[in-house]
Amino acid sequence: MPAQILDGRRIAQQMRRKLRAARDALGPRPIRLVSVEVGQNPAAAVYVRNQQRGATEVGIEMEARNLPLQSTETQLLAMIRDLNHHPEVSGVIVQRPLPPGIDPRVVQSAIDPHKDVEGMHPANMGAILYREPTMPPCTAAAAQELALATGMDLRGAETVVVGHSEIVGKPIAVLLLHRLSTVTVCHVGTRRLVDHTRRADILVVAVGKAGLVHGDMVKPGACVIDVGINQGPDGKIVGDVDFASASAVAGWITPVPGGVGPVTVAMLLRNTLRAAGAAI
Which run of H or E residues covers position 105? Predict the structure, then answer.
């Protein structure tokens, strides 16, 4: 039986309805999210447009600021400091990739953790070790939301995360540990990746390598969450998982596009409302 599709667009739409209600409960005061980009990246531009559409639907004012490509780290940090002290700004996100010469870790650390709606400030990342923080990393939180949408019992489930990035791999592993999943994290040093993926009840793949995981690497009935976004030879966007072969084996699978991405944007909006004081 073909896998059930985890429709991220539908799940995100359901989330936005709840977020709109939470935003309305905060009253008429403005809630602003500021996006900062250095230079102009076509992929980032698409992501910003998606964020803006979602923000408008939820009732958040989103402002996109753009610094010239030749801007220095000092100039970017100065803008972030201004936004940190601006009382009407609830959330700040700096779009990636950043140009050479600007350290993304320095930039992320400069954002006020209470306005770090991407959930990547060291204070928010560190809080994951103790509990799920108020503003968890958006993509990791989206992957968890999709796993929960299956209705699977995450307690005791064998979870395998392929990729150990700070943005997705490490935080999703810890988030699922809080759900008492048994988590294995695989990376470039892993020997025989297939030995791990074949026993996963939940398989999260976040590497950035098109077609890395095929159907013969997937446990029958597993939940496969594909975080990868890659451009195929024909120009189409594809994931890290070979969808055709994996969907013939898995129980649930996320499409690319239309899986993790829309839920990630919804998580960004949720974090923004939490930063503004919403109890959601």
Answer: helix 104-110
Which amino acid is present at 150? T
Q: Are 263 and 145 in contact (CB under 8 A)?
A: yes
Domain of residue 53, CATH code:
3.40.50.10860
Q: Is 9 a domain residue?
A: no
Which of these, 237, 245, 236, lies nearest to 218 by C-alpha position? 245
Q: Which of the 8 DSSP states describes residue 216?
A: G
Range of the domain at 201: 137-261
pTM across the whole model = 0.96
Fill in the amino acid letter for 236: K
Phi-psi region of 189 (alpha: psi -120 to 50; beta: other; left: phi over 0): alpha
Q: Mark 185-213 as b/e (b = at least 16 C-beta within 10 Å).
A: bbeeebeebeebbbebbbbbbbbeebbbb
Q: Is residue 130 part of a domain?
A: no
Q: Find out whether 88 and 32 touch, Cβ atoms under 8 Å.
A: yes
One pLDDT digit (tens) per residue for the chain, 280 residues: 789 999 999 999 999 999 999 999 999 999 999 999 999 888 788 889 999 999 999 999 999 999 999 999 999 999 999 999 999 999 999 999 999 999 999 999 999 999 999 999 999 999 999 988 899 999 999 999 999 999 999 999 999 999 999 999 999 999 999 999 999 999 999 999 999 999 999 999 999 999 999 999 999 999 999 999 998 888 899 999 999 999 999 999 999 999 999 999 999 999 999 999 998 9
Neighbours of 248 (CB within 10 A): 14
